[in-house]
Structure formats: C-alpha cells, structure tokens
Amino acid sequence: MFHKNPKLVKWFRNELPYDPINVLYHGYHAPIRYELYKNFLLFEHDDAALLETEEDVKKSIRRINLLLTLERILNNIEKFEEDRQEEMILKITSMIKELNFYNCNRKMTAIENSLILIIKFQKEDGSFPVSLAGNAFIAETLLEFGLSNNLYLEKNLKWLLKQQNDDKGWGTTKDGHSDVWLTTKILHVFSYCIKYFKSTKIRKAVEFLLDHLFVENRGGIIEGKIAWEVLSKDYMFEGSFAGGVLAVLEVCARLNISVENPHISEMLNWLKSKQLQSGHWPSQTYDAFDKRSDERVTMRVVRVLKLFYLMPQGGSGTIKSFKIKQDGRTNSKKPAFITDPENNPKPELIEKNKNIDEE
Questions:
Q1: Number of domains within the chain
Q2: Other C-beta atoms lying within 10 Å of the C-beta of residue 254
Q3: Which residues are CB-contacts of 78 (< 8 A; sequence separation ≥ 6)?
Q4: Residue 15, CB half-sphere, CA atoms under 13 Å: how many?
Q5: Which of 46, 318, 329, 353 is the most buried (most CB within 10 A)?
Q6: Percent helix, strand and coil across the chain, each rounded to 5?
Q7: 147, 121 Cβ separation under 8 angstroms
Q8: How far is CA 13 from the centre of its chain?
Q9: Taking Cα atoms as reference points, which of 269, 276, 258, 270 lies closest to residue 312?
Q10: Which domain holds residue 287?
C-alpha cells in the first residue's frame, strides 16, 4: 500500500522509534487519511481507498453541521447587531477555517459567499475592523483558501507589515518585547506568499522569534512556558494561536529556514523525542499523566518532518494541506471583484456610486 512513495515511508520507518505513517493510514479522522493517501503516499486519483475516504470526508457529520450553520448565518446576516460585527466576522472566519480541514473549497457557495462577505468589511487602509490578532487570523484563513496575489489581501499584508515593532515582532508583552505567539501567527500569514520570503522585515521577524524561544511571554496573547509544550490548536480565534514548538517549526519550514540552524535542530530533536509508543504525538507534553494521542498533531508533525528532511530547499513553501501552488495560483474561480478590482469594484461600491449619481 506504500509503494508509491517508498522514500518517504522508508525515512519515517528508519528515523523514528515508531512508524507514524502506518498509524495514520488506519486513523480515525477521514480528512487526515485523505491527505495522507493523496499527498504523502501518492495514491492515484481513481484509487478505491482514496475515493472511499473522500466520500467519508464529505459525509462527516461535523462538516455537514458546519456548512448548515454557516448557511443559516449568511441567510440571517442582517440580524447581527452592529456592535457585534467583530464577533460575527471572526465567527464566520473560524467556521470556514475548520471547513478547510474538511476539504471544502472556494467553489462551494457557502464558502465563496463567506469570503466575499469578509472582504467587503475591509477598510481603506487594508485592515479589517478587528484587533491586530484578528487581522492575522483573517488573513491566514483567506490565504489558506488561495486568495493570494490579489490587491485586497496585498493591502492587508502591507498593513500588517506597518504594525511591526522595533524588535521586528508584533504585539506587546509585560516583558517589553513583542508577543511571540502573535509574531508566529503573522509570520505564518507571510509564509503563504513566496515574494516575502527574502524580505528583510520577515527575516528579522524570524530572528526575533528564534531568539525568544521558551520565554514566558507575560501579557501576550498566550502566556507561560507551558505554552511551548501545547502542540494542539483548533480553528476558533483563540485556539488558533496555540501550537507551541510545532507551530514555530511549521512557520520556519514554510519560510525555508534550514535544519542546520541550531535552534531548528534543537526543536526538531525535542519534537521527535516526544513521540508516543502508539506512533502518535500527544496534544501536550508537559503533563506525563494526561498525555493523549492526537491524530491532528501527528499529521502536522509528519508534515513538518517531511518538509525539513525530505524536501529540497526552496520546496517547503508548499504544505499540501492547503491547495496553493508554488506561484500562488489556484484552479478555483475567484469572484470578479477579487481578481480584477479595477474593472469589477466591490458590490457595495457599485451601490455607493449609484446613490451618488442619483443625488
């Protein structure tokens, strides 16, 4: 069953105490099995196991419930009070971020309408009407759906760069330096855009991050040294900033930071040492009596190890869980006002200009 990609399978069998590929192959979460079959084991598009797993993903109760809830929200969007606008934007963003895990794409009506709605709230300076952390959360989600290389996202990226502190991180802490976890999230945003990889500001931000490994981060969006050992994260706004050492490694892998970097080598060795006898990695590593196997964390670890050890330098910009090609292109059809904003303005701008003409 693993003959399509023997190099990858052999590496994981030989380099780790327990083989995580075989464990994930028989895993519980259909989206993880689907990603493994398609992007790691390179099953043919008409392989029976791949097709069956794809159907399992589509029939997932969580996926169906999320789509139904999202449609209800979109159909009743006018009922949201104006003072709950930020809550509404982040709620919708959280839902489509999780739907991305369930292999939903921008061609789906509910997803496309959600993306259009979010972008309509963008302000003139490129920011969205939420906090700095909220802006990073939104930008990351939109980029996960392939909305790169368009003027609206580019404006938001430029706004994010303007918020960078003198120490090259983002956010604030009680210790006088930038917020490590907010910086990690924002670097993750820029890791989707290859043209920023060699940016001095981004490289300096990576240096800040690696120079502040295992700090308390007092007063930041996440506090305490234990945060470095919490490897799991979720799709809601607050939970998406977690991920600990694994989250930092994901960012560095995407930005092509070499495994020869001593900080990277130290984190990778630490991460490999935390594998459980089940072949999985746990959701957290600090409490020996409450370690639980976590398939999603394990899939992320496998992905990171593949990027650092098995892909050539310059190839790690593509993490296969996201359908983004190396140059940022996608096959999905984008709304006209996103792809060609000069000739296709936002819907609300059309209405605004119409009202001005009538006056």
A1: 1
A2: 22
A3: none
A4: 16
A5: 318
A6: 55, 0, 40
A7: no
A8: 27
A9: 258
A10: 165-324
119 domain-assigned: no
Closest by CA position to 144, among listed 332, 329, 331, 324 = 324
The three-state secondary structure class of 230 is strand
**Torsion angles phi and psi, residue 2, rounded to 5:** -110, 15
Q: 241-294, pLDDT tens digit by residue?
A: 999 999 999 999 999 998 999 999 999 999 999 999 999 999 999 998 999 999
* CB-based burial, 11-32: b 16+ in 10 Å, e otherwise: bbeeebeebbbebbbebebbbb
CA distances (Å), 226 to each of 58, 199, 232, 298, in order? Answer: 36, 31, 12, 19
**CA distances in angstroms from 167 to 92, 129, 236, 306, listed in the order given:** 33, 26, 28, 31
Helix (H) or strand (E) holding 281: strand 281-282
Per-residue pLDDT tens for 309-341? 988 654 444 433 333 344 444 444 445 555 555
Residue tagged 């921008």 (tokens):
106
Question: How far apart, in whole angstroms, are the C-alpha atoms of residue 142 and residue 358?
Answer: 35
